[in-house]
Design a protein that fits this description.
The chain has 70 residues and is mostly helical. It has two helices and no strands. It has a domain at 37-70. 56% of the residues lie in helices and 0% in strands.
Length: 70
Amino acid sequence: MTDGNKKRGPGRPTEKRKDTILRLRIDTDTHRKLSECAAVRQVSMSELVREAIDEIFRREKEKQQKNEAE
C-alpha cells in the first residue's frame, strides 16, 4: 500500500464529546447563509451552529443577570 492510499485515523480528539445528534429543517436561504458563513470562518456548519447557540445562551444569561440586578 502506498502512502497516498493509507487509511487515515480518526484524527485529533475533540475538546468535548459530541454524542447528541440534532436534525433540523431549514429553508434554502438559511442553508445558503449558514454555508457561506461557515466557509468564511473556515469551520463546519455544525461548529458554526454550536458557536451561535453559545453566543445566544451567553446573551440570554447576561439579560437575566441584568434583570435580576434591577
